[in-house]
Structures are given as structure tokens and as C-alpha cells.
Amino acid sequence: MKVFSKNYAGLIAAGLAALALPSAPIAAQNQSGSTQAQPTANNPFGIPDDFSIFDQNSTGERSATAVVNGYVITGTDIDQRVALVTAASENELSPQELERLRVQVLRNLIDETLKIQAAQALELPADRAQVEQTFNQLATQNFGRNPERMTEYLESIGSSPDALKRQIEGELAWENLLRRNITPFVNVSAEEVNDVLQRLEDSRGTEEYRLGEIYLSATQENRAEVLRNAQRIMEQLQQGGSFVAYARQFSEATTAVVGGDLGWIRLGQLPTALAAAAREMQPGQLNGPIEIPGGFSILYVINKRQVLMADPNNAVLSLRQISIEFEPDVTQEQAEARVNQFSAFIQSLRGCADADRATQELGATVVANDQITAGSLPDQLRNIILQLQVGQTTPPFGSPQEGVRVLMLCGRDDPEDVGAPTFDAVMSQIEQDRINKRAQRYLRDLRNDAYIEYN
Fold first, then answer.
1. For the segment 303-358, what is each residue's pLDDT rounded down to a tens digit?
2. What InterPro entries does the database record attribute to this sequence (predicted)?
3. How far apart are CA 83 and CA 164, in angstroms?
4. Minimal CA–CA distance to 298: which of 375, 379, 400, 212?
5. Which distant-in-sequence residues (6+ apart) come within 8 Å of 94 by Cβ?
């Protein structure tokens, strides 16, 4: 069980609060007698409510490219990275949305460049052979025995192998930096680990969640802009965008490298707002943007289970599928009549041994499979089948075009209850949490020290 906590957001918020000046009157008289806004906790820069903007023609412009400590990020770099993000989206982006996406991608490329440069400065660059190996692994995972098709695919969507390899290089370089500058200085005591193990045992049977998260940090000054970015990402996800792809590109948490996957986590480990949202969600649902201390999160529930209990998704099922087909020119009335006949027949079956009767009496097709894992079934069907007793069937489902069918449960082998995670696994979880917190501060320092010129 791998868990990445998000408590680093609270540290960022606490840091901002510490920097804020004490509350003061909103306005004061300057020497000329006019009012002047004073810094407050909610307005640390003392920006007045009414002001004039000079050089109106440049307002709202966003640079297309940048030079980061001498390294040029080109328009082509941005275009190809945007293509990686949008490839999984079913809907075409409007010109306005595309431009906003380009701005966000440029920010990500700047951070990526800072990570690569920092690693090079410490003589910890990403190994080129490892970059190629990771690229080839991705190609094999997605294209099986034809990894060369990865290059064809990337070029077909307007990206390139170099764009993906650059992203891999940034991730590997960041891992090198964390191993050198952060991980050795993170310590976890045996008492802390034992305390976590005891709390796990005390919470046996309660629910835990496997969550995905896209985290965007925000300050009081840029809150509105970050919120708009998060809302646009949410819209793209709802329109079919890949959560993993968007998390890899946009999330500012260290879990971005694994597509935002937090692993299995209990709600008590989450900020209050995220825990409240997840509690009301079902697997496959999205929620966000959700404001938390330090920024905004978009939450995705991948799955749910009970702490230290057997996961019903791992149950091995024995199923019979009984299906009927329709003539191509069947009318709606004819189809409904045949489905009604099919439903009545299914209700007359006396168990799995009786299922083959459907072939002789209805001309139905009966297919048996005794080794289906519950987790491999579609969510809607899985939830129905896990509530069935042996010999019972699902409601008929399908269509006249694809055929109508039912699944009959003929056996179920439940997995054994799982034990608590090992001492080493819990220690690794706590260490990763602390690494996440320090990594955010480290990246913020790299940004502050960088020389960036926008073109």
C-alpha cells in the first residue's frame, strides 16, 4: 500500500500567513492628504481598490516562449507538450482554451528546465540510457510488441519522441535531486511507525480510498488565476481528458510522476475539505476544484475498500453469460417482446445447471468462465454481481444492435483478509510524505533563484 499525503499544502499556507503583516486600517492619509491602502493580512501588498493601469495595450498579454537561465523554450516545445495533454480529449479545444493551456504548459516547462539544470549543476543529470529505457518501457506497455509505433503515434498527434523524452528526463533529474538533497535528511523513528500500525489495526473495517489528485498551489495574490486554471482542467477532464496525462503535466505534487496516484489512503490522512469530498464520491467520479490550505485540488476516486479487510474486487467469480441476438431489421415492438420473453425465461431458471436449457428453448448462446476477477468487470456490473447469491442473475442488459444478455453467478471465491502493511512499508510511506513537503519548498527556491526572460 503506497500512500502520498498532501499535508505539505498546510505548510505553504502557514508560511504565507507568517509573512503577512499584522492587520491595519485599510486606508491612511499620506503626506499629500490622499488616502493610501495599508498592508493587511488579506492585502499584504497594500493594493488600493481603485487604481489606474498604464500601458493598457500590453494588459493581459502572455509570452509564448521563455529563456530559463540561458536555455530556450521554443514555441515548438510548447506545441508538442500541449499535444501530449490534449491527445486523449474527445472534444476540440477552443482557441481561448488552447491559449490558456499553452500558458500553463509553459510554466510546467520552466519548472522542468529548472529541475534539469539543478541536477546538471550538481553533476546529477538524468542518465540518457535510463531515459531511453523508460521511453521504450512506455512504448512496450502501450503498443505491445511494436514499440516503434510509439514514435508514429506521437508524430500523428503533433508531438514527438523528443518531447516525451524531455519530460522523462525532467522526472528522472528531479528524482536524482531528491535522493541527493532531501531523502538522506528525512528520518522516521520506530515509535512513529508503530503508532501508525496501531492506528491501522484500530481502524480495521473502515473504508480507505485509492485516489488520484491534481494539486495546484496558490497564494492570496494569484488565487483567482489558479482557480480559473483548475476549473479549465476540470472541464477538460469532464469532456474526456486523461486524468493521468493532466496530472503528469499540471499537478505540482511529487505524485505527478505517477499520474497523480496517491495510492490507498484513509480519509483521516487528507485535508478536511478533501476528506469531506471523497466521502461522498464513488469510484470513477471527479470532484473539484476543491480549495485546501495552500491551493486547489481536483480529486478522482479510483477505487474504495475496507482497511485490513479482503478486497471484494479480488474475488474470483464463476459466471455464465446467457445472450440472445436480434435480426438486423427487427422493430422496436419485436425487440421488446423478445426481451420480455427472455426475462421471463431467465426468471424460470433454477440455477447454473439449468442454464444450458436456454440454448434449446430460446436459441440463446451460453458461455461459461470460471476465472473472472470481479475487479475486471465494468463498475456498474461489478456492483450488481457482488450483491448476488449463487444461482442469481443480473438484470438483462445490452441493445438490439449488440444483443441482450444476463450474467449468472455460479460460484465465488473470496480472497482472505489482508494483514497490516509491513513495518518497512509504513516507514516508506511516512518518509515519502516528508519528502513531498520538502520537495515543494525546494522547487519554490529554484524558481526564486532563476533568471527567466520571456520573449
1. 887 776 667 778 889 999 999 998 888 888 888 898 899 999 888 888 888 888 88
2. OMP_Chaperone_SurA, PPIase_dom_sf, PPIase_PpiC, Trigger_fact/SurA_dom_sf
3. 11
4. 212
5. none
> pLDDT band at 167, cuts 50/70/90?
very high
Please name the amino acid found at residue 358: A
The CA distance from 122 to 205, in Å, is 47
d(CA 298, CA 230): 7
Other C-beta atoms lying within 10 Å of the C-beta of residue 418: 15
Q: How far apart are CA 346 and CA 394, in angstroms?
A: 10
- Number of Cβ atoms within 10 Å of the Cβ of 198: 11
Side by side, which strands form the sheet with 261-265?
261-265, 207-217, 295-306, 286-292
DSSP character for 236?
H
Q: Which residue has the cell 539544470?
A: 117
Residue 324 CA to residue 361 CA, distance in Å, equals 12
Where would I find the beta strands (DSSP E) of 52-189? 66-68, 71-73
Select the highest-mean-pLDDT range: 113-122, 404-413, 418-427: 113-122
Q: Which CATH class is domain 312-413?
A: alpha beta
- 147/134 Cα distance (integer angstroms): 12
Domain boundaries of the chain, sorted by first residue = 312-413
Kindly report each contact of residues 69-77 with a partner whose C-beta sits within 8 Å and lies 24 or more positions away, as own/partner. 69/113, 69/114, 69/117, 69/450, 69/451, 69/452, 71/113, 71/117, 73/106, 73/109, 73/110, 73/113, 77/109, 77/163, 77/166
pTM of the model: 0.54
As given in the structure block, the three cell numbers for residue 449 are: 533563484
Confidence class for position 212, pLDDT limits 50, 70, 90 = very high
Burial of residue 47, with CB atoms counted within 10 A of its CB: 0-12 exposed, 13-18 middle, 19 or more buried = exposed
Residue 420 half-sphere exposure, CB side, CA atoms within 13 Å? 17
Instruction: State whether the Cα torsion 419-420-426-432 is positive or negative.
Output: positive
Residue type, 415: P
In the numeric block, which cell numbers belong to residue 26? Answer: 485599510
Going by C-alpha positions, the residue among 255, 236, 67 that lies closest to residue 247 is 255
